[in-house]
């Protein structure tokens, strides 16, 4: 007679893909709920959101010896340059609408690479959301 552990292991192996899919679906449902909640908070509290954004710009700017406004301008220029280098086209789906410049290595983890042209790729809004969420 098989033990309970062995039966559980066999069940898991047979239904491994289904279990992964169910976990993934529940993860994305919860994630989507949290994202919508954050967006609603940002909409209701624009001053707090602006303050947080300025704090991030200041933090990243200090690393590169720039003030907040210089860094903000530099990021905008970086974004335009990345889009131009990628011929104004999403690298994943070849779309030409709603384009964003995406940092391959995240700004939060690698602020010193935030203005590096090798650290950027052009993505449409849908592909950008898929990567982040």
- How large a portion of the residues is in β-strands, by DSSP E? 5-15%
- C-alpha Rg (nearest Å): 21 Å
Distance between the termini: 45 Å
Major sheet attributes: 2 strands, antiparallel
How many β strands by DSSP?
Answer: 2
What is this entry, summarized?
Helix content is 63%, strand content 8%. The chain is mostly helical and 133 residues long.
Can you walk through the features of this model?
This protein is mostly helical and 133 residues long. The protein has one domain. Helices cover 63% and strands 8% of the residues. The protein contains five helices and two strands. It has a two-stranded antiparallel ribbon. The protein is extended and about 60 Å long.
Give keywords.
2 strands, extended, mainly alpha, 133 residues, two-stranded antiparallel sheet
Secondary-structure blueprint:
Blueprint: H1 4-14, H2 16-44, H3 46-63, H4 68-85, E1 99-103, E2 120-124, H5 125-132
Antiparallel strand pairs: 1-2
Helix pairs in contact: 3-4
């Amino acid at each position: 007679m098989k033990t309970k552990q062995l039966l559980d292991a066999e069940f898991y192996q047979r239904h491994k893909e289904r279990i992964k899919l169910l976990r993934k679906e529940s993860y994305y449902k919860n994630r989507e709920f949290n994202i919508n909640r954050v967006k609603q908070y940002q909409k209701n509290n624009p001053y707090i959101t602006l303050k947080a954004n300025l704090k991030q710009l200041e933090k990243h700017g200090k690393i590169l010896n720039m003030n907040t406004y210089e860094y903000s301008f530099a990021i905008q220029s970086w974004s335009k340059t990345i889009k131009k280098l990628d011929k104004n086209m999403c690298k994943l789906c070849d779309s030409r609408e709603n384009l964003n410049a995406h940092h391959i290595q995240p700004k939060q983890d690698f602020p010193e690479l935030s203005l590096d042209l090798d650290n950027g790729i052009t993505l449409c809004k849908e592909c950008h959301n898929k990567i982040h969420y």
